[in-house]
């Protein structure tokens, strides 16, 4: 379903870190190289590698001083990691509906949720899709709140020629095993504000100045590993090749579904480059299927798929508030119910893509046949 593309190229870097990356300047050499090049690529001034993207978000919220009594807005449909750090900071999570076309936070729904307590919005580039960042940023500017870009899934995407990861006060990336580039587990926090960078850097390592053993605050231990960074750096040097493969998977699914009406894959509107971390498939209402139905059918036939992100308010973790959530975020509930994620592993081949696509078509055909017979 999902997994990285590791070659001999990466092995050399990891072996070098393993053999040489322990003493003196070498102990963090790959972390520093990876942080520097990654920031440069995204036209950001500062970067901090972290143990994963969840800790990047947490570090940032803490660095921005978000705390008890503050509200932070997130889209209904995303991985829980976008929202969980808001709770870590004892702030309040406020959910906003998503856009029916790009599945990212809807600007009108977002603005409706802004109150005097709102400090930030976490905009998520879902599955590699880009929302209209101009509109979102201008709403945040108008209300003087921070825009945070969760670019965990959009490494390589662009909006109007600006890379995902360059939007808002800061952005975060994930290098989880399933992401476009991996360090096993890993994350990166990017920003342009020097004071915010200094604060986050201080918070990342037990509240001390680098090289000292004198702690002035109790903070976190979110330091990165040089070994992980060596893998990340090597993967990053192959970024164009990796993004091209992700786009190839998406193209092949698009071609395979060309004769199937009323289905929707990740969009790429004018002005957007979509790096398609994962190809998602929304079934139009004419197919009368739920994601559970299609996933069960595929599973019965031995083929993998995953659910489109559940609306967060529907999850027990957020109090199972489906009734209320459905009223607040009708689009998120509607789309999530009839959408699945297709395999996005780097080792997926054309034959497998065809098999999955043809099987999905067959499943839908049977549903239509049963409807006619009823
Ligand atoms: C949108 C989004 N945000 C945040 C994360 C968290 O990343 P990590 O697993 O590296 O903490 C992920 C992926 O897991 C994600 O998909």
UniProtKB/TrEMBL annotation:
N6-(pyridoxal phosphate)lysine, modified sites: 179
Name this protein carries in UniProt: Aminotransferase class I/II-fold pyridoxal phosphate-dependent enzyme
Gene Ontology MF, one: transaminase activity
InterPro entries: DegT/StrS_aminotransferase (IPR000653), PyrdxlP-dep_Trfase (IPR015424), PyrdxlP-dep_Trfase_major (IPR015421), PyrdxlP-dep_Trfase_small (IPR015422)
Keyword terms of this UniProt record: Aminotransferase, Pyridoxal phosphate, Transferase
GO biological process: polysaccharide biosynthetic process
The keyword Transferase is assigned to this record: yes
Pfam families per the UniProt record, alphabetical: DegT_DnrJ_EryC1 (PF01041)
Active site: 179 (proton acceptor)
Family matches, as SUPFAM superfamilies: PLP-dependent transferases
Family, similarity comment: Belongs to the DegT/DnrJ/EryC1 family.
